[in-house]
Amino acid sequence: MSPTDTIYIAKAEECLSGAESELVNNRYNNCANRCYYACFQAAIAALIRNHIEPESRGGEWGHGFVQARFAGELIGRRKSYSSNLRETLARLLMLRQLADYEAQNVSETQARRAIRAAGSFLDAITSKGGES
């Protein structure tokens, strides 16, 4: 692993830990937010390991770019990760948007499912280590 992808894995683990804390404290909207970001940060680490970088001038990791390249390149083309992970980022983004922007709350059931999905996603990324 490179220093950069290690930083993103640490961020992902911190987000997942925060999501678990939010769940215990019945803050389901914030739990959903942290679950999404745990996966987003983990996906960035996976992209870095596979030498896929943002194409923008600022080098920013856009949400659409990360989702598209993770699912399209690392799952679809290279088969580096299970197809079971293909929709995880998109589903958790929709849940995060509901939590952050809609006049509706995330339920405890949705939050628990998000934790499981994020945990599985992060486990898949970290189990690959530095492999391409």
How would you characterize the overall build of this protein?
By secondary structure, the chain is an all-alpha fold. The protein has a single domain (3-128), classed as Four Helix Bundle (Hemerythrin (Met), subunit A), CATH 1.20.120. It is 71% helix and 0% strand. The protein contains five helices and no strands. It has helices at 3-24, 28-49, 63-77, 88-101, 108-128. Helix 1 packs antiparallel against helix 2 and helix 1 (3-24) packs antiparallel against helix 5 (108-128). The longest helix is centred in the first third of the chain and has 22 residues, at 3-24. The N and C termini lie close together (10 Å). 38% of the residues are buried.
List the helices and strands and how they pair.
Blueprint: H1 3-24, H2 28-49, H3 63-77, H4 88-101, H5 108-128
Helix pairs in contact: 1-2, 1-5, 2-3, 2-4, 2-5
Arithmetic mean of pLDDT: 94
Name of the CATH homologous superfamily: Nucleotidyltransferases  domain 2
Low-confidence stretches: none
Question: So how many helices?
Answer: 5
What oligomeric state do the depicted chains represent? Answer: single chain
CATH structural fold name:
Four Helix Bundle (Hemerythrin (Met), subunit A)
What is the element string, with H for helices and E for strands? HHHHH
Strand content: under 5%
- Bin the helical content: over 70%
CATH architecture: Up-down Bundle
Taking all Cα atoms into account, the compactness measure Rg is 14 Å
